[in-house]
Amino acid sequence: MGTLATVLAGKKIPTLGDRFRADVEGDIEDVDGVMRITKIRVKYTIKVPPGMAGEAREAIASYIEKCPGAMSVKGCIDIRDSAEITEIAEG
C-alpha cells in the first residue's frame, strides 16, 4: 500500500482516512511437500477527487514495478491486483 500511496500522492490524489483501502487474500499450497504462499490477490478501493480516475488508473498500472515487496517475490508468488476507483466530491 505504501508504494501505491506514494505514486498516488505524486499525482495529487489523497489517500487519508477512508479514501484508500486494500483487501488482501492469498493461497497457501503444498509444493513438493513444502507449504508455500503461491498467490496473492489485492483489491484496492480508492476514492479520488472529480476528474482524477484516469490518474488513479495510471498509478495502479505502474506502482508494482516500484514496490520493493512485490519485486522481492516476483516470479515466486503470483501477485494480482485490481482496483475499484470512485470519484467523490471534495468537502
Walk me through this protein's architecture.
With 91 residues, this protein is α+β, with helices and mostly antiparallel strands. The protein has a single domain, classed as 2-Layer Sandwich (GMP Synthetase, Chain A, domain 3). The protein has helices at 2-10, 53-62, 68-73; strands at residues 20-31, 34-48, 78-87. Strands 1-2-3 form a 3-stranded mixed β-sheet, with helices on one face. The longest helix is centred in the middle third of the chain and has 10 residues, at 53-62. The chain is elongated and about 55 Å long. The protein starts with a helix and ends with a strand. The model has no long low-confidence stretch (mean pLDDT 95).
Layout: helices, strands, pairs:
Layout: H1 2-10, E1 20-31, E2 34-48, H2 53-62, H3 68-73, E3 78-87
Parallel strand pairs: 2-3
Antiparallel strand pairs: 1-2
Number of helices: 3
Strand pairing plus helix content: what structural class? alpha+beta
pLDDT under 50 segments (min length 5)?
Answer: none
Number of strands: 3
What is the CATH topology assignment?
GMP Synthetase, Chain A, domain 3
CATH fourth-tier homologous superfamily: K homology (KH) domain
Mean pLDDT: 95
* Secondary-structure element series: HEEHHE
Distance between the termini: 24 Å
Strand coverage percent: 35-45%
Main sheet properties: 3 strands, mixed
Query: What is the CATH architecture assignment?
Result: 2-Layer Sandwich
Please state how the strands of the largest beta sheet are arranged side by side.
Answer: 1-2-3
